[in-house]
């Protein structure tokens, strides 16, 4: 088992406690990744010291969702309200200006280190009932490095007595260095984009080809700003879809398996050069507000388990 980095964990000195808790570091060849206790998220991923994800420093609180896990729903739930199994639920509103419940219930929770070796680790969390959520889920995420880069596999098992609604998302930003957003090239392998209202909630779907949201062929972002969900993904022969972000000095691809029929692309961080610049490419199992629309929503019966795998590969 790899040793934790004591200079990062702050475990021996309470005054040195870090905003995201313990820092678990894995490595393989030129690759190194850091996973954090708070949210069980991905803080860094590098190859030969060059950022592949736009993360944040150990002394900083995670901002803009960088590397966070979004469960048991990604994106937003309108007014935090939904009805499941005949019971109306009210979640806390965590996106107060837009009156939404945003990005699930686990991204600020303390995850535990389940198992760790030099090149991989597994973190886990038991999600218990709480206001607006009546279910028990065992959540496990494995981060593994190999010669191609990073692979992330998440499993959610219903360990409660009743069916549970479930959706998953992840929020990595692919690093873009100093390249201005106008000059970054993106390929988004999807044939439909999702229109949203002023609260960033879905109101319709439209064909991608020929629209301002058409990145089926890789090209410059130019003047476009994206905070856009896509679906009807175009998969390669191996069943994966691949979204590529290319800047002047690096090209990074995020891929995802059959569990992910949706993705969100968000460019404001690269546009504003806010913190470490990057373009968010978020694999999602369902769209925003799926607890209400039920579109692509997974219902886990007692004992059922959902799994999904995505990863990041530099070119």
From TrEMBL:
* Protein name in UniProt: Aldose 1-epimerase
One of the protein's GO biological processes: glucose metabolic process
One MF term from GO for this chain? Answer: carbohydrate binding
Q: Which InterPro entries match?
A: Aldose_1/G6P_1-epimerase, Gal_mutarotase_sf_dom, GH-type_carb-bd, YihR-like
Q: Name one Pfam family in it.
A: Aldose_epim
- In terms of superkingdom, the source organism counts as Bacteria
CDD domains recorded: Aldose_epim_Ec_YihR (cd09022)
Q: Please give the organism.
A: Humibacillus xanthopallidus
